[in-house]
Design brief:
The complex is a heterotrimer of chains A (433), B (477) and C (162).
Chain A: H1 20-25, H2 30-38, H3 41-51, H4 63-69, E1 78-84, H5 93-100, H6 102-116, E2 118-125, H7 131-145, E3 161-166, H8 176-183, E4 207-211, H9 212-224, H10 226-230, E5 233-234, E6 237-238, E7 240-247, E8 253-258, H11 263-270, E9 280-284, E10 293-294, H12 305-310, E11 319-324, H13 329-343, H14 349-366, H15 373-384, H16 392-418
Parallel strand pairs in A: 1-2, 1-4, 2-3, 7-11
Antiparallel strand pairs in A: 5-6, 7-8, 9-10, 9-11
Helix pairs in contact in A: 2-6, 2-9, 3-4, 3-6, 5-6, 5-7, 6-9, 13-14, 13-16, 14-15, 14-16, 15-16
Chain B: E1 3-6, E2 9-12, H1 19-25, E3 49-52, E4 56-59, E5 70-72, H2 76-90, H3 107-115, E6 133-134, E7 139-141, H4 151-158, E8 165-168, E9 175-178, H5 192-196, E10 202-204, E11 216-222, E12 231-237, E13 256-259, H6 271-274, H7 276-280, E14 288-290, E15 293-295, H8 297-310, E16 314-318, H9 324-334, E17 338-342, H10 368-372, E18 390-394, E19 408-413, E20 425-428, E21 437-440, E22 446-449, H11 462-469
Helix pairs in contact in B: 2-3, 9-11
Chain C: H1 9-22, H2 32-43, H3 48-58, H4 62-71, E1 83-88, H5 91-95, H6 98-109, E2 122-127, E3 139-141, E4 144-146, H7 151-161
Helix pairs in contact in C: 3-4
Chain lengths: 433, 477, 162
Amino acid sequence: MTAMSRRIMTFPVTATSHTLDDYRARGGYATLARVVRDMRPEDVTREVAASGLQGRGGAAFPAGRKWGVVKLNDGQPHYLCANADEGEPGTFKDRWILENAPHLLVESMLIASYALQVRHAFIYLRGEFDLPYRRLSAAIDEARAAGLMGEGVLGSSFDCDVIVYRGAGSYVCGEASALLTSIEGRRGYPRNRPPRLTVRGLYQRPTVVNNVETLANVTGIVRDGADAFRAIGVADNPGTRLLSVSGHVRRPGVYEIVTGQSFARFLEEECGGIVDGRALKAVIPGGISTKVLKGAEIGPLTLDNKSLESAGSSMGSGGMIVIAEGTCMVRLLQVMLRFYHHESCGQCTPCREGTGWMHRIIDRIVAGAGRPEDLDRLYAISRANDGTTICGMGDAAGYATVGMLDKFRDEFDYWIEHKRSRCDGNLECPSYS
Amino acid sequence: MPELFIDGRPLQAENGQTVIEVARAHGIDIPHFCWHPALSVSGSCRLCMVEVEGRGLDIACNLPVADGMRVSTMSPDVQRRRREMIELTLLNHPVDCGICDKAGECTLQDYHYEHNGRPSTSIDAKVHATKFHALSPRIVLDNERCVLCSRCVRFTREVSGSHGLGIVQRGDASLVRATEDGAFDRDAYSDNVIDLCPVGALLSRATLYQARVWYLQPTRSVCPGCERGCAVDLWHRKPEWRLRELDARQNRAIVRVTPAGSPDDGRWICNKGRDLPAYFGRRRALHASVDGEPAPLASALAAARDIVSASRRIVVLVSSFASNEELDALESALGERIEAYVKRDHRPVPGEIVQDDLLIRPDKNPNRTGALARFPAFDETVRVDASADTLIVWGEGFDTSTVAPGTRLIVLGAFESDRPLRAGVFIPISLQTERDGHYTNFEGRVGAFSACFDKPAGVAHASEVFAAIAERIGVAA
Amino acid sequence: MNAPAAVRFEDLVPEFEALRERFPPGFSSSLVLPCLRRLQEVHGRVEDVDIASLAAYLGVPRIQIEEVLSYYSQLRREPVGRWHVEVCRNVSCSLRGAESLLDRLASKLGVAPGETRADGRFTLGTCECLGSCGSAPVVMINGAYHEHASAEGIAALLDRIE
């Protein structure tokens, strides 16, 4: 991928690249200046909608369409929230933006706030992220001091403040409605829709929640125009995406890719292939809530929504986890189900009871007391959580489970019959222990 | 006005209604736990799912009606989902029915038999939680039975305003708990959560294990706790379930008090109403007496009649617990011969809430309004026996020891504590649970109560007493 | 155990007031999380008196604070050791050695995950994904990330900070 098609990771990370001076030297805040001087809010929204920018938090909902639901000039406060909770296991790409390009997020949020008539914008930052918190706070202080934020942005009549709100340890708070309920100072319980958050969100006011990376694209779209964004990548999933790659690869890390490039070549060339020269056993492409793909399946696939969906999976949050041959998939599912059980907020029956049940079943299988019917039960519980829950976590636990069972059924059958793993039951490659 | 179809039936709805509201208005019960017409929508139990043509399944409690919408509450998909939700609700629910007070009026029991009926497919041990947790001195909570519908929590936030309950922890470790500063103990409406709870998780300590609900029948009545006169159901043993060997008092006891109608009606009563069994269960006066000596009822009535016919000035202190019928009886029997004043039988006791924004009213008598419509109020600063030679005290709330020795005294009382210590005639009378009648509340609304029991032998209805003691009036003194 | 701090609730009020100024009007309830975080920072945990003081100060029902405290993983009412060592055991960290790392730290410290050493210096725990999967395995010590963690490296660090 050429440097020209990068939109986010466009500069080398140095000791000062996150500062206001460095950001300005890269052209930062020039777009904000033009927006408040020359554009109307609806012009900005129209540009974002025309670009085809889709959410990069996992749901891929068109950002412009979401923004368009907010009625302008309706006499009530509107809110914008950047979802920086980044809790989906395998995902750490928003962190790159928060630590290294905080001003890109801030400028984008100011532009988005201008479009949505937002006076107070929030960044919901997961509580564990410490350096991102310090970088964001510093960036906000710098922006305020430079008149880029606050009363009268850049001398205009547009007032806007960005506030960092720290979470306190809850995966479910990455769900947009739970996130808002958390900002309201309460338990992170997701909400039923209707009403949509863009109609009644934070404190029952129209609110747009966008992923950090989604927002980070806004400045570039408004600066270069929708067409320039559309020109990159595939037509139904335009632009670039940040992928977080982890697991048994030689070069884990954050990569910016153009949508539509070859999955296999990306893993081999960009990420350095599998450690220890092992074969690729499986990839979880977009965070653990997306269905696992066997190594052999990724050959014909490209890194975009449609291709992954045709394989029964999804680009999800861009959290790609690479798994080498020799890894026990039964134990891997155990780790995932333990996670979902721990994180279930407990509000709705199918997820609250179902995640606990699935965890207890997999623990029992691993302990050597599994029965063949247990796998049918896991399928049944996944089905009972499909489309019945308040938020997507119930479905996610089900997808993760069904994905593993569909693709690696023989390992589960083996463990139930022989009361042990078919490999050595380990998750780590020997070189790590 | 949108029209929609539920199971093929065309129904008129109102704008802004949800499917479950329309269904309920037309007598269609969509199974649910967490929804309640008087509370906000929780949408968490997931039991009320219905199928919307062209859109798939959704919960009915949060589904706004749209004109032309076609809803099925019994398609194969809906039935399957309902079974799944019931099984998941039961997953960690203890099979306590044999020892659970809620059996017989438990929606989980009912829904399981009607919509699932299959044994659990889980072979894993149930998650255990606290049983017999003292949520307050009045209410016991069994967390294992709790289905986390959050009705009780929402009640304390949206109705009583005590904010006394919440849910702590998360996932399947979630627990309903009362806030640690005791706010729920002080919630004067706390016991309503017992009715609201769809299962046997919240139970009244006072009624725990007293009777199976199918031993009991409700009789419509009016709470006499204050002048609001909330309509209540008084629950007592059905005739066919009367105990033979045990203390007969059990067969004449009010076991529990609930707001009139079903828990889904959204009517509430305060805790004082819940405690009526203690009021009705106080030691009753069961025999008449004359000048401190037990006497047959007929003798006491005769003695009273003699007093009345020989009196020049009779003052009657009228009970504000009297029914409208009894007040009429007093007026027609003795009206021309007496000066009657309405007293307060009960006053707020120390610590009792005098008045609030919800139900509690300052006058702690059920029918002062009805009495004052017929007679003037009693001025307590005036010595009542100043020029009266006979005083008739009807009901509680007047200290007969203050009456001058020369004044003749007739007391009508239901409780042993009403029996005077000084000379006079005492006639035991019935309670509202032993006759039919009406009270008029402070707004002028007339409420009806019906008898739960026959009056005890040896006890008279006040209206009969007035007729009896007036018999010789008219004969020249 | 953490030494009891001399900082009282009243001492933090000016800071809380400044925080309130940054939020729009009507956002008192939102202050619950940041105030609890700060109270835990100075007291090592959120103490019972903090709950009452905060409810009164913000004008929110006390139950809201009790509920929030028990919901979020990072908030606690019980004290932890001087050094709170949390090992992520989610997928990517497990793929890169978190399980054996946890075992070795447990035997080094002589405690099981979830326990505090008898002298109160170390509490060993586990946590879920910290959003640092590319530098797995990750250990969080008193809230700071230690990435590319190895048993030897963390053990040496623990010896130094002991």
